[in-house]
Write a structure and sequence with these properties.
By secondary structure, the protein is α/β, with parallel strands linked by helices. It is built from 15 helices and twelve strands. The strands form two sheets. The protein has a seven-stranded mixed β-sheet with strand order 1-7-6-5-4-2-3, with helices on both faces. Helix 3 packs parallel to helix 10, helix 4 packs parallel to helix 5 and helix 11 packs parallel to helix 15. The longest helix is centred in the last third of the chain and has 20 residues. The protein is globular. The model has no long low-confidence stretch (mean pLDDT about 95).
Length: about 425
């Protein structure tokens, strides 16, 4: 039986659901409340029947987007949030309790690191390890370990975790395995392929791709049996146990905490997602060409990009991501080149803190998004003071290469 490809599936996702008046996109449902002619029907929805009660817990528009994300990830269900950080906060705060142990990559994004510090203040023990080294990961597991968390590609050092090895460890120990798939997107990588329990995507980035909406999502891959997880509340232990975890995340993260994705943002993200594969191909192609050019440039001492054969995890990335290496790279400038002077000479690239946009973006990582964590933590993450983070866009490749070259030449003249 023929199975449609990634883009075909996403393009026709809405119309294969119930869409009003033959529209090819799910409409934007802005209603906060949903009324029922029969009070018994309203009660039934509150008690678990499929339907809508209040916009804080979801709308038909967010549900349509969630269906797309689930298809992209090959999972069983998804729940959307206002941002990627809201998604992670919902996972950590609803599934972990005081006294639990979380094992995390030491290379996590700066805001995620701040969130983990908050978890520690709430009584959750957090241990940071190098996820590229399975011996470190295995040695750090404790009797009270409940969850392991890592990103697919670290931001901005581009370290590649041993995703398959961690998945096997989590399966052996019965641990919840959470993967942040933001830098790869579901087109490059599906977390279920390495045994992930839950996959987070910051929809603001590559999935939307146009820098005009914020959003996040958690997808349950269906691989973890929540019947064995002790932190599920009794009220959510109903029906098939494979759905308990996501139900708790949704109820606590949306109903109780209010991290709700708006219908307008959901619609923008859903439309943007239709061209994800096309854009990601351009991101990856441009990033590889730029990395190769900068790697040979006298104005650059080091390029962090998994597509380069010199990258420590190049072979792993090639296998995991099917010889595509993403659109983010880090560059360290030669002595004598001031990172701010270099950035100010760029003519096409925007100075902005975002990634996954159609436009190329750059910033001095140590002085901006990682400034708050301090020099010691930055050193642990391998973030040099001269490190420039570049989110490579889909501009014409020759224009991008010329822009970086002229900026570097101008700093050396």
């Amino acid at each position: 039986m023929h199975k449609n490809g990634f883009t075909t599936t996403i393009l026709h996702s809405d119309r294969h659901q119930t869409v009003e008046h033959g529209a090819v996109h799910k409409p934007i449902h802005t209603s906060s409340e949903f009324a029922y002619a029969d009070a018994r029907e309203l009660a039934a929805v509150f008690q678990g029947k499929a339907g809508y009660t209040y916009g804080r817990q979801g709308t038909p528009t967010t549900a349509a987007l969630e269906a797309k994300i689930t298809q992209m990830e090959g999972g069983v269900a998804s729940v959307s949030f206002a941002t990627g950080m809201a998604s992670l906060a919902a996972v950590f705060t609803t599934l972990l309790r005081k006294g639990d142990h979380l094992l995390s990559s030491q290379y996590v994004f700066g805001n995620t690191n701040s969130l983990l510090l908050t978890l520690m203040e709430l009584g959750v023990e957090v241990t940071y390890v190098d996820p590229t080294d399975m011996e470190q990961v295995r040695a750090a597991v404790q009797p009270n370990t409940r969850m392991v968390f890592t990103e697919t590609i670290a931001n901005p050092g581009t370290q590649i975790a041993d995703l398959a090895g961690i998945g096997e460890l989590c399966r052996e120990r019965g641990l919840v395995y959470v993967i942040d798939n933001t830098l790869t997107s579901p087109w490059l990588f599906q977390g279920r392929s390495v045994g992930a329990s839950l996959v987070m995507n910051s929809l603001s980035k590559y999935v939307n791709g146009h820098g005009d909406a914020l959003g996040g999502a958690i997808t349950d891959t269906g691989l973890y049996d929540w019947a064995s997880y002790p932190n599920i509340y009794d009220s959510y232990r109903k029906g098939a146990s494979t759905g308990w975890g996501l139900l708790q995340i949704k109820k606590k993260g949306l109903r109780d905490m209010g991290g709700t994705l708006s219908a307008d943002a959901a619609h923008r993200i859903a439309v943007g997602a239709e061209t994800l594969a096309l854009r990601m191909a351009a991101h990856c192609s441009n990033a590889l060409a730029l990395a190769k050019m900068l790697d040979a440039h006298p104005g650059v001492t080091k390029v962090h990009y998994p597509g380069l054969p010199t990258h420590p995890q190049h072979a792993r990335a090639a296998q995991l991501f099917n010889n595509r290496f993403g659109g983010l790279l880090g560059i360290e400038l030669a002595d004598g080149i001031d990172c701010f002077d270099f950035l100010n000479r760029l003519q096409i690239v925007l100075m902005a803190t975002h990634l996954g946009d159609t436009r190329s973006l750059a910033l001095p990582a140590a002085h901006t998004i990682y400034y708050e964590m301090g020099a010691e933590r930055r050193a642990q993450m391998g973030i040099a003071d001269s490190l420039i983070r570049v989110s490579v866009g889909i501009e014409d490749q020759a224009d991008l290469l010329h822009d970086f070259d002229q900026a570097l030449q101008g700093c050396r003249s």
